[in-house]
Write a structure and sequence with these properties.
With 477 residues, this protein is mostly helical. Helices cover 54% and strands 1% of the residues.
Length: 477
Amino acid sequence: MADWTSTWEAMTPDEQAAVAASVQARSDELLATGGDTSWVKTGSDLFDPETGMPKTYIPGEIDVGDTGAKVDAWGQLHPEIRELEARRTPEAFDKWKIDMGYQRQIDLIGDPNWSPHASMSLYELWDSTLRTGDPNPFVGNVLGYGPNRFDNFTGGKGGHDSGFAVGETGGDPYTSGVDDDVRADMKDAFFYALRVAGMEKDLIDKLWDWAETELVNDPSFTAERALIGMYDSEAFRTRFKAIADMTDAGYGRRDMPTPAEYINFEKDVATELSRVGVNYAGANFDNLITNLYMNSVGMGEVTERLNTAQRVMYEMPQAVRDTLTDWFSDEYGTSIAMKTFLDPTDDWSNVQDDISTAQTGGWGRMVAGLNAGWDADLAKQVSDLGMSQAEQWSRFAQLKEQEMLFTETLDETLDLDYAEEGVRAEFSLEAEEEGGLSGYELSDIISRRREGRSARFSGGGGAMVSGTTTGFGAANA
């Protein structure tokens, strides 16, 4: 592949001048308009000081002075891309569909948008063959019969050098019966597609046993029909349980993973489980994958769930873990917590709410000494405020400093509960019920109580509390 220096040196002086001028103009434009210049050289860093060669280039054809000639710096640097673009013609696409047998299937079902792949269109499949040079790049792409149908495999029908015109078959397998060549070609195509998908040999052998039986029963049976029909075979349904369940549930083929995507998902989930030290084996792992797919839990959420479980089990203070199990579920605090968090039937948002509420609850216990009256409902109201851990800790610490204000003196008639009214006042929560006191009102009452006690203390008087503890003046505040 050419490099930029050799591409530049191969240009004529006029072409170099045109490219340099276009680069300078683009740099000036970006700098003048305040555009994003993070991706391109600009200003004093634009040209090599010794050779004058620009350190970047502008894609597309550039006029060479007034000569009418043009120079394509990008195309000269990447001729393979320009060559690929030249091969992307409607005629080539139509020929490929005929050669691969796809057009026959489109005509059969009457759907011009049909594709054998769950998520890629026929055009995207064709484009992948242009890039790889392989007419059968992955499972679902080996269909039908045509002149180039089996040009990847030895003993194939037709081929690029067969001499057949587009649309001819050199012998119609739909009427010629099952012969050894047809059987061998179909087996090669079938095995190739499934190996590319990542399937293990034992499974491919079982699926071929099924496909060969179908071929014997119906000589018109093709690799196309095998790769689609195998979804209903017992071997496939056993191996890809989630795809079987999704099929039974009425999912469209485009909404289901391909076997290759399924296998890759299994590998990614297994890697994540290994990272956090969780062991799923055999049927348990198969059931986990099925449940994840059936509940639309993707790889990102799997990682998030396991990271959260790891944090709960190994990083949270004991008071928070105890609160989580006290208020919500014993399973959160046991050795099976990791698997509990992976249960896709649980609403993940509810699990996250439980954890956030338990964190607030645990911090309230740790910092403010809250106990009686401090429950999940009140903690959730605080948690839903969206405060950071530091801000919550600060508020709980301030509440702790005022704890004695909630032990009434003999002349204080309003009974305030430390956990209920104290938390509601400190975090400015709404009134618990209609007609009740809001956090702002409670905060005002507590402030006046503090000021009253301070005034009595400054006057020299003591203050007998009504509880079991005696305080004196401001010391109680």
